């Protein structure tokens, strides 16, 4: 490129480096997204070569059918579990950030559930929640609390609480590590100055710790909300996403691959995307406002 200016050569080099990433992005992100929107207005069954354009019929079906939109009530259990999970994660992070004996060992134990395979975790809790010879009911018998034995995943009133507790156990360590990382970035001089001024542990938590980790709390809450709305693996493996324990994403999977209604499933995916976007926007705008 001897006849080209340095600026032109620079632009050509940049474009050549960007071409492949942009092509991959268009092929595996933009095109599938546009195709998903298109299919959401059709009755395609995923097999036929042709499909019928039905307009907003799929979207009307989603909001009018309680068996579809009503499963969001099951996702609410995971949201509540996520809040409890964040509280516990912050609690353990504060404790394990102090100079206590064996803190590294405790960190490993609390983080271990997160690195376990989700399928293995789900199968493990199937045995724990088993009605006849499960670990949980056996422990209740051992401690003389047999009256509290339950069908933990067979009772529709308890199944979502049980499944949400599995999610809490698995992901609490991940949030704890995030909190632990940001706690270690807070200058120790702040705590020493507060101690000299006579501040107790609660006051240092309110006036030093929480203000310095507010951005991370926001991040974890965003992950909690989106995670609660998109739960799939735990209910799908433990209960097979049976009625009463299914979530919106498992319902999308069933509609698409069990009932071969790709058009309706595509519309459900679009609705989920819109709901997640709206909820996160509201959270950032109103609940967490002022943190810019």
UniProtKB/TrEMBL annotation:
Xref: InterPro entries: ABC_transporter_permease (IPR051393), MetI-like (IPR000515), MetI-like_sf (IPR035906)
Keywords tagged on the record: Cell membrane, Membrane, Transmembrane, Transmembrane helix, Transport
Domain ABC transmembrane type-1 positions: 71-283
Primary location: membrane
Presence of keyword Endoplasmic reticulum: no
Membrane topology qualifier: Multi-pass membrane protein
Family annotation (Pfam families): BPD_transp_1 (PF00528)
Segments passing through the bilayer: 12-34, 76-96, 108-129, 168-186, 221-242, 262-282
Subcellular location as annotated: Cell membrane
PROSITE patterns associated with the record: ABC_TM1
PANTHER family: ABC TRANSPORTER PERMEASE PROTEIN, DIACETYLCHITOBIOSE UPTAKE SYSTEM PERMEASE PROTEIN NGCF
Family of this protein: Belongs to the binding-protein-dependent transport system permease family.
Protein name as it appears in the record: Melibiose/raffinose/stachyose import permease protein MelD
Organism annotation: Paenibacillus allorhizoplanae
């Amino acid at each position: 490129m001897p006849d080209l200016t340095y600026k032109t050569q620079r632009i050509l080099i940049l474009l050549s480096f960007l071409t492949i990433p942009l092509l991959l992005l268009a092929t595996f992100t933009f095109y599938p997204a546009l195709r998903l929107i298109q299919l959401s207005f059709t009755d395609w069954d995923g097999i036929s070569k042709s499909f019928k354009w039905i307009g907003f019929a799929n979207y009307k079906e989603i909001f009018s059918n309680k068996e579809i939109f009503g499963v969001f009530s099951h996702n609410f259990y995971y949201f509540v579990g996520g809040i409890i999970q964040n509280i516990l994660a912050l609690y353990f992070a504060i404790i394990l950030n102090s100079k206590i004996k064996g803190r590294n060992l405790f960190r490993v134990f609390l983080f271990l559930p997160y690195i376990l395979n989700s399928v293995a975790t789900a199968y493990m809790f199937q045995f724990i929640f088993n009605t006849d010879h499960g670990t949980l009911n056996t422990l209740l018998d051992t401690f003389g609390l047999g009256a509290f034995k339950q069908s933990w995943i067979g009772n529709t009133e308890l199944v979502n609480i049980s499944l949400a507790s599995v999610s809490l156990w698995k992901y609490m360590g991940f949030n704890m590590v995030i909190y632990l990382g940001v706690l270690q970035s807070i200058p120790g001089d702040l705590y020493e100055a507060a101690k000299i001024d006579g501040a107790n542990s609660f006051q240092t938590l309110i006036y030093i710790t929480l203000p310095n980790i507010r951005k991370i709390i926001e991040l974890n809450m965003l992950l909690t909300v989106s995670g609660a709305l998109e739960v799939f693996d735990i209910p799908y493996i433990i209960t097979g996403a049976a009625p009463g324990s299914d979530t919106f994403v498992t319902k999308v999977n069933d509609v698409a691959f069990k009932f071969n209604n790709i058009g309706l499933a595509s519309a459900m995916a679009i609705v989920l995307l819109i709901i997640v976007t709206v909820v996160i926007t509201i959270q950032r705008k109103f609940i967490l406002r002022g943190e810019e």
